[in-house]
Amino acid sequence: MTTIKLAGISIFLMTLLSVVAAISPAVSPVYTAVFAWIAAILLIMRLPRAMVIQVSLMLVTGIACILWSLSDLEQIPVIKMFSANHQLLAVIAAVSFLRLITQPDISNDESLPIGKLAVLKTLWSLHLFSSVINLSAMIIFGSRIEKDASINRLHAIMFSRTFACGCFWSPFYVAIATALLYAPGSNLVVLAIAGIPVALFGLLITSWQLMKDEEVENTAGFPVHKEALAIPVTLSVLMIVTHLALPNFPVLTLITILSLLLTLLILLYKKRTTAISLFNNHINTELPNINRELSLFLAAGVMSTGLTALITSSDISLGLSEFTPLTGSLFMLVSICVSIIGMHPIITISVVGSLLSVTSFNPNLLGICMIMMWGLGIVISPLSGVNLAIQGRFGVSSFSIMRWNTIYVVSLLFFCIILLYLYSRFNLVG
After folding, report:
1. Closest alpha carbon to 371 in 86, 131, 164
2. Is 316 a residue whose pLDDT tops 80?
3. Residue 134 φ/ψ, nearest 5 degrees
4. Which tens digits make up the pLDDT trace of 184-233?
5. What is the pLDDT of residue 317?
């Protein structure tokens, strides 16, 4: 058995055990952590050198904080430290299976539509697909366009922003999953509904900008058919409805279960003879591709636990008695700045969560702020996964994408700040 295959199996076992641990208190998350760390160690050679350094610094920071706090700790939080983000990793792994059932049908014989209407349809359709299968949608759309046309500046802008807008509302994005974890008590439905205006604002700004660009008349779109949009829309609605029906069921576990179960059921219905083979192949070859998120989130869990222990034992405080829209605005601004130099949103959010662990806060307001931090950060950062993916796959400079998105992010930041004040002022998010 190859190292890659063994890592894929370990990630899948981590995902299943995460579900069991969430449902049954008798099962310790330590088992989940063991398989997660085994997979991370097996895949460490596939990480870029810069990420190895970043992950190492996070681990050292977390362990150093624990060691500094030893004299004040009643018990060393070993299990929490090494399994803190296992539910997030289970969501990432489970959601990756959805690409097996939600990929749009692609006909290589069908000519590409060109012009304003084609670009507009592609933008909104890509957003819907991205909201479920994340980066895979961008690769599918871009690869088909690239076959018969060239990927230009407008495509790069569209790919980057449509994907990032999903962070604000989609239950299948790790952004909301992270907010639910680091803003304890926040509600999935409230976060999703509160984030929809931000996503719509971002998509409308982008639509307006692309429509008035002279290059749009010669820009190719993706041949989207209405029936292809049914599955991503249905999955998102089903997730929200199921949560409303089972409000006390752990949300992250619900996302994980639905993603795996729906994938398997639809595969068995549509591709009965090859369903198990496709599912198994995904475990062996595709799951190991989440190695970057795996290492980053495990390290973030260690760092967050260490920081929380240090802050709690040392009575470190930001001088805040509560979380306010002003505080949230400052956090978003800082998040954008550090994202530009390559800091992943999970790091920023875990630090914010640790700093506010001894502060009174409205969990939904904090959660909304966190998904805003995530969405704004990844679209502006030249080192974010989406912008690096565009550069690596389609040859468009990620620093150029950052420049093209700067005014957009500033506009979106002001809109997010206004929304935070409105949500707080009129108590719209509880």
Report:
1. 164
2. no
3. 55, -130
4. 999 999 999 999 999 999 999 999 999 999 999 999 999 887 777 888 88
5. 63
Q: Which of 172, 162, 153, 327 shows the shortest CA–CA distance to 238?
A: 172
Q: What is this structure's pTM?
A: 0.92
In terms of Cα–Cα distance, which of 389, 291, 298, 310 is closest to 55?
A: 298
The residues that bridge with 129 in the sheet, in sequence order, are: none
What is the pLDDT at residue 106?
63
Q: Is 200 helix (H, G, I), strand (E, B) or coil?
A: helix
Question: What is the DSSP code (8-state) at residue 112?
Answer: P
Contact (CB, 8 A) for 77 and 305: yes
- pLDDT tens digit string along 54-71? 999 999 999 999 999 887
Chain centroid to CA 313: how far? 31
The Cα 100–Cα 189 span in angstroms is 26
Q: Are 192 and 169 in contact (CB under 8 A)?
A: yes
- 38: tokens are 């085994």
Q: How far apart are CA 135 and CA 123, in angstroms?
A: 14
Helix-helix angle 153-165:116-133, to 10 degrees: 40
Task: Report the Cα 425 to chain-centroid distance in Å.
Answer: 28
Backbone torsion region of residue 132, taken as left when φ is above 0, otherwise alpha when ψ lies between -120 and 50, otherwise beta: alpha
Between CA 403 and CA 415 the distance in angstroms is 20
**What pLDDT, on the 0 to 100 scale, is given for residue 71?**
77
At 27, is the secondary structure helix, strand, or coil? Answer: coil
